[in-house]
């Protein structure tokens, strides 16, 4: 079974996807982390975030590997665990530009489909239900207000020990800007698949969102049986 969870930045996709995957023993794939890894590679190689050819070459040199870890998925670049580094404000601020590059998206989509393989998988991102896994059995589109997402991002940084150099209001403005960029890019823009179920997590707890997704998966399984 394939489950796709799409939605804007900081809507809680990764958090709930990890929990659902754990409860169902599905393989979890965080595609956003892959684009963050591409952005980190560009920075580490001193490349402009618009240098598609240079970034693609650097990705081939360093490699991006996803591995299961104690706290979910680990991301390795050039053999080193960069799971925390890819969440820093600098990478967050530039990932939209890198992820909009057609060559980068094509390379990552190919890798994502390979990872999905023939196993039960839950994958989250921006274009999973529309582009990466268009035939996914269950498609969720997770949304939340920009303010609540900004507050979540600030809390996430604090919990990870990452220094926040912005106010919640500035983070909210950045999130709104990223929403615009992600939904207006030419290749695989952020959009809700026609057959996706929308869940607004603004006023829901993590457990409530998880339960809603599990219910949709159970419903689909019953229909298949």
Description of the molecule:
The protein is of the alpha/beta class and about 220 residues long. About 55% of the residues lie in helices and about 15% in strands. The protein has 9 helices and 8 strands. The chain has helices at about 15-25, 30-45, 50-60, 90-100, 100-115, 130, 145-160, 170-185, 205-225, and strands at about 1-5, 25-30, 65-70, 70-75, 80, 120-125, 140-145, 195-200. A hairpin with a 2-residue loop joins strand 4 and strand 5 (about 80). The longest helix has 19 residues, at about 205-225. The protein is globular, with a radius of gyration of 17 Å.
| Widest β-sheet, arrangement of strands | 2-6-1-7-8
Number of strands: 8
Measured by DSSP, the beta-strand proportion falls in 15-25%
Instruction: Report, as a whole number of angstroms, the end-to-end distance.
Output: 13 Å
Instruction: Output the structural class.
Output: alpha/beta
Given as residue ranges, the uncertain stretches (5+ residues, pLDDT < 50) are none
Q: Evaluate the radius of gyration.
A: 17 Å
User: Main beta sheet, described?
Assistant: 5 strands, parallel
Number of helices: 9
Mean pLDDT: 92
Order of helices and strands: EHEHHEEEHHEHEHHEH
Shape: globular
- Portion of residues in helices? 40-55%
How would you briefly describe this protein structure?
About 55% of the residues lie in helices and about 15% in strands. It is an alpha/beta fold.
């Amino acid at each position: 079974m394939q489950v796709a969870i799409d939605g804007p930045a900081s809507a809680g996709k990764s958090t709930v996807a990890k929990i659902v995957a754990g409860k169902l023993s599905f393989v979890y794939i965080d595609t956003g982390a892959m684009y963050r890894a591409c952005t980190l590679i560009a920075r580490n190689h001193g490349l402009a975030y618009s240098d598609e050819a240079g970034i693609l070459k650097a990705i081939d040199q360093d490699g991006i590997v996803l591995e299961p870890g104690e706290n979910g998925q680990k991301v390795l670049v050039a053999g080193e665990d960069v799971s925390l580094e890819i969440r820093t404000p600098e990478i967050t601020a530039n990932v939209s530009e890198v992820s909009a590059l057609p060559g980068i998206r094509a390379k990552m989509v190919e890798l994502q489909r390979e990872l999905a393989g023939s196993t039960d998988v839950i994958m989250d991102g921006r274009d999973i239900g529309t582009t990466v896994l268009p035939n996914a059995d269950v498609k969720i589109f997770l949304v939340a207000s920009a303010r609540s997402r900004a507050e979540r991002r600030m809390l996430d940084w604090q919990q990870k020990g990452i220094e926040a150099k912005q106010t919640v209001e500035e983070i909210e403005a950045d999130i709104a800007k990223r929403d615009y960029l992600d939904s207006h890019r030419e290749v695989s823009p952020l959009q809700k698949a026609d057959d996706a179920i929308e869940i607004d997590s603004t006023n829901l707890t993590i457990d409530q969102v998880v339960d809603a997704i599990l219910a949709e998966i159970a419903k689909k399984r019953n229909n298949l049986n």
